[in-house]
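Q: Hi! First time asking for a complex rather than a single chain. Here are the components, and I think there are four in total. Is that enough to go on?
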Amino acid sequence: MPRSSRIKTPLILVNFKTYLEGTGENAVRLTKKAERVSSETGISIAVAPQLTDIRMIADQVEIPVYAQHVDAVDAGAFTGHVLAEAVKEAGAVGTLINHSERRLKLSEIDEVVRKTRSIGLLSVVCTNTAAVSAASAALDPDMVAIEPPELIGTGIAVSKARPEIVTDTVSLIKKIAPQVVVLCGAGITLGEDVKAALRLGTEGVLLASGVVKAKDQRKALMDIATAAVQK
Amino acid sequence: MPRSSRIKTPLILVNFKTYLEGTGENAVRLTKKAERVSSETGISIAVAPQLTDIRMIADQVEIPVYAQHVDAVDAGAFTGHVLAEAVKEAGAVGTLINHSERRLKLSEIDEVVRKTRSIGLLSVVCTNTAAVSAASAALDPDMVAIEPPELIGTGIAVSKARPEIVTDTVSLIKKIAPQVVVLCGAGITLGEDVKAALRLGTEGVLLASGVVKAKDQRKALMDIATAAVQK
Amino acid sequence: MPRSSRIKTPLILVNFKTYLEGTGENAVRLTKKAERVSSETGISIAVAPQLTDIRMIADQVEIPVYAQHVDAVDAGAFTGHVLAEAVKEAGAVGTLINHSERRLKLSEIDEVVRKTRSIGLLSVVCTNTAAVSAASAALDPDMVAIEPPELIGTGIAVSKARPEIVTDTVSLIKKIAPQVVVLCGAGITLGEDVKAALRLGTEGVLLASGVVKAKDQRKALMDIATAAVQK
Amino acid sequence: MPRSSRIKTPLILVNFKTYLEGTGENAVRLTKKAERVSSETGISIAVAPQLTDIRMIADQVEIPVYAQHVDAVDAGAFTGHVLAEAVKEAGAVGTLINHSERRLKLSEIDEVVRKTRSIGLLSVVCTNTAAVSAASAALDPDMVAIEPPELIGTGIAVSKARPEIVTDTVSLIKKIAPQVVVLCGAGITLGEDVKAALRLGTEGVLLASGVVKAKDQRKALMDIATAAVQK
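A: Yes, that's all I need. Here is the structure of the assembled complex.
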């Protein structure tokens, strides 16, 4: 059974970043809203809270929890680092890797992808160009999320403003490593952004402020999930 | 009341690093041993577990919990970073900064020291030379921990092998910022290493493998705490 | 004879950054203009060109040439690094360290300051706050240049917009390491900015775009040098 | 005409690192030995000296000169950075990228490869595993040099100790980007190491201490070049 069969698509992956609206008890509340919307719509919604909140959240919900980052280190003398094993033990099922706000060296991405695979964590490598997406796919992660950094946080959706970077990514990845699930992100806020993303050949979206900073988080989640249903 | 009155000395600060013996449920068990030894001896023992374990540990013990690292960022769009506020919300009372396995830029140390002070977290800046200790003291943290990296993990105690680096640190810091509490670390394993450290003018020790990787963690903690009592 | 007697003050130190107007043959032409203005006014003007241009420039002028950065490494297996010895051999008399566009870890600044001292290169540690200036002075470099990054390249002179950060720096450094020469930078463009800087207790200025990107580089240099004379 | 037609193979690329035997006047002497051996054997030998030496060397020899590193920055306010344009202006025809002693973020490698291509510099991306080689090839550089870091500087040649990592690299790259020239490095010291490398499908070698630190640099170069002739 292929690894990617563990990933239910379309996938809505919500990155809490270090927003206070997604920290501590706020993170728990937001995750519970996501869980209800997921249950009501049947669409897979996953969350990526801060490291300090992973265990508390994973203990209280059924939906998948991802780390925002793990370091390319093994157990040992690595003060202040984030061990993939620790993230898994705390309840995460996967991790973002190389987010534009936490870029890694190429050799580190390779190490982390192999490490997560060996311990059974799902890997989502974030990328900024079609060429970087192709390069990342060559490392055989579970997912690649293309996110042009200049659109992150703008509310201008990559799937509408830069469709060609998404379709180039999809087509390059399908050539190099067709088993890799492609997500897209940056500026995704509305249901129609999600529909556009899925029409371009992706199997889900990575988003953050569009949900976390929304006045009505539940409504934002419902709008997005409903759009994914209607694809 | 001076900030440092919040710090009960002599202080034994145990860094769990990313050792598996100090991860997850193992981290809870080790912390409970530390709590019992602290209670039996009256000596202050604090622990610095991994980020994912801070909340679970702080929920179950009374002794102080420190983070191993926080990033020089504020709440916002900083995926994969460690917010000082998040660490505090999870139950930490302080944080290590600039450990030799997680060195920071000078401007970041300044930012993190100011940030922790402003939100009420204790700061422990780790240093590698007497000059770096003096420089760190000029940033006015709560504590400075001098740890020559070449001795870390060796079992050869800095307080016995390099006493002059400790006394130079103490004397430079007392000139620049006498309110700063000085700890020392690297190779500290035995009660006699702790006694030597306190005789050199420090007010505590930072240690890791000597306790975390000990065959009998409780015995190692008791040996160290007893030595601190008998000073 | 104190080290700082090798530094003729007031000092005008012009950082060429990676501006094309300060690269290759343009760098030679700009340095020759600086040399003429220095000779005509009697004011010490030094330049900090890119690494690839140091030797060509040092071969053709008498005024002091600084590197913009050197790495904290010794001779050996360090591909792509900048050796202090190599910079000196190419003709530099000193180096900037920790510029806001090339921040270093605290332990690296300590290493580079000691390394430059041991091989006879002058060290200029760049800083962003009064506390960081004090910390840097504790490492005993030859000079500290305080430059609030938010003013760099703005044309709004630190010496007029943020005089308190300059006077705080001067007073903290005089307490910790009175032999250290204090420069200030960020936004310095006009002669009056230089006069203000010297009145605040500094012994020179670090500047870049105000000269390198000036329509008339000679005129900009002459304006600044004349102001330093008239102090 | 394909880009790679500018690269005469087999190519012997000698990295001077920050070895004193390859710094300043020593670098010029070593380069002249390489030029003579290249001329006598007809084998292409290129050198990668330190940044401060590029211009002096390029001015005196005909063989190709590479930089050891350039930064992912454009002309502008980037103190202490290495501009691809500056390296080219100084006489380099190409640059190493991502050497194991100077690892870059994946997004930086992408930027630098595109930048060098746009200004006509040859790019050699160094890699540590077959997967990283495949990823790098997806960025379409001119060359990829596979170098397992654990063998660098050992004198144990990758082409003999780890032939499978070389053949895996060659076969993955030929699938993803067949126009990319594959080199290998790490531990290459003897003529037979070079022969083994070429037999495995590479078109040249990257080496350093085997030549730079050799008692008789000319003899080492001649041994290597002769082996390449006899392939």
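A: DSSP finds ten helices and eight strands in chain B. Let me know if you'd like any chain examined more closely.
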